[in-house]
Write a sequence for this structure.
């Protein structure tokens, strides 16, 4: 899968805010939109397929409680909360996946949405195992 140049775009949150669900589904990397209360408001096709979550209902569900409780930890959700507390939310980090990405390092970018929520993008193209990621550091 080719990583969209969208992943590194400077004004990414503003761009995604203007996309329709159909346009989000055309993006070849995972895109999840969360409302300010943490409920899923967008979950694109690439994320559904790449994560292994599939086509199960996700819209309106609490992302960290019902969709991805495996990410409700200091390494993932905590990193986002610290960035919000610091006053800016545009972070890129690596994280070992779960579901179909178990034991594979993924690259995430999390940016603010204009409605007070956030966008989570998942780049699965790196595909490094945690062990190879540690030896490359």
């Amino acid at each position: 899968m080719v990583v969209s140049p969208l992943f590194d775009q400077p004004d990414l949150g503003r761009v995604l805010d203007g996309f329709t669900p159909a346009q989000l589904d055309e993006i070849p990397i995972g895109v999840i939109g969360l409302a300010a209360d943490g409920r899923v408001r967008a979950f694109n096709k690439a994320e559904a397929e790449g994560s292994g979550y599939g086509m199960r209902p996700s819209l309106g569900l609490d992302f960290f409680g019902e969709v991805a409780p495996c990410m409700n930890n200091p390494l993932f959700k905590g990193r986002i909360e610290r960035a919000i507390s610091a006053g800016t939310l545009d972070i890129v980090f690596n994280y070992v996946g779960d579901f179909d990405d178990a034991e594979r390092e993924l690259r995430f970018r999390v940016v603010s949405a204009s409605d007070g929520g956030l966008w989570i993008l998942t780049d699965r193209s790196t595909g490094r195992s945690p062990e190879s990621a540690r030896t490359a550091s």
Remarks:
- The longest strand covers residues 118-128.
- Residues 77-85 form the longest helix (9 residues).
- The mean pLDDT is 84.
